[in-house]
Amino acid sequence: MYKIIGTDGREYGPIGAEEIRRWLAVNRVNAQTLVQAEGSPGWKPLGTFPELISETGNVPPAIAPPQHSIASRASNKVAAGICGILLGGFGVHKFILGYNAAGGIMLAISLCGIFLTCGLLWPAYVVIHIIGLIEGIIYLTKSDEEFVRIYVDGRKEWF
Description:
Order of helices and strands: EEHEEHHHHHHH
Number of domains: 2
Number of helices: 8
Radius of gyration: 28 Å
Distance between the termini: 60 Å
């Protein structure tokens, strides 16, 4: 008989080897699951038990999610920074980073300021271009780690 610590941190058991085999078949446990044999003082991974090793041999090990490097996650930093400086008022840098709503707002203000009001909203047009310029400079001056933390993971859309 065995006791098992589940992924929820709770202790289950006592259970027999046959039950463990059923749990292995449905991926409820794996070779890294902590198990305590009856009469044993400590917890060990399921894969270390000789009487259960053949059952764990058929189970693939737990797969960790892929770890992306900071550089690959910050790959849009330079493109977004340059587009923010050159085309900032049109929100191109926002679209590059996946901030479609913010990019749409900037694009709408720029187009309205130029075409729909015959230039009457030129102050809004100028302000939105200055915002884009400032954001482009901010993107380019951040380190890759800081850029990923703030704009990729943190999803900060403005400044």
